[in-house]
Design goal:
By secondary structure, this protein is α+β, with helices and mostly antiparallel strands.
């Protein structure tokens, strides 16, 4: 199962002295570190034609932690083997879950994407909100014009 946090990889943070690992094997990132990373990703997302930038913050046995910044609505996604756990770091968007992916196509053996979804349940997401999306559930992040989100 992979976890995504709705920005530089953990090794980059560690090399800059930002991430701390204690003797018990825990990895800690402060709210300030996450907000700084989100701001950097939003700068990248604003120059990306798709309006997205992401980074893997950490990889562990059985899951990984990502940060994603969006300045535009994304495609409909279906992850065949992983769940998404979204935590809004900053901004707002609506994440629609469920429904049916229309005219989707495989982008890898474990991932399907498309541009349209019929039906679904909208979840209006704000800073601090969380959303768990099971594997095989179509979902789409809808970003209103002029808005951004970092999850």
């Amino acid at each position: 199962m992979r976890l995504r946090l709705v920005g530089a990889a953990l090794w980059m943070l560690a090399s800059c002295g930002l991430a701390q690992t204690d003797a018990g094997g825990a990895h800690y990132l402060s709210q300030a570190e996450l907000l700084n990373q989100a701001k950097a990703l939003l700068v990248k997302a604003r120059t990306d034609p798709r309006g997205i930038a992401d980074i893997m913050l950490a990889t562990y046995p059985g899951h990984s932690v990502w940060m994603v910044a969006r300045t535009r609505t994304g495609q409909v996604e279906v992850h065949r083997k992983i769940a998404d756990n979204m935590v809004v770091i900053d901004g707002e968007a609506t994440v629609v879950t469920g429904g049916t992916l229309v005219d989707g196509g495989d982008i890898s053996p474990d991932e399907v994407r498309g541009n349209k979804m019929d039906g679904g349940v909208p979840h209006v997401m704000h800073k601090g909100d969380t959303l768990h999306i099971e594997a095989n559930v179509p979902h789409q992040t809808i970003v209103a014009p002029g808005k951004t989100i970092a999850i």
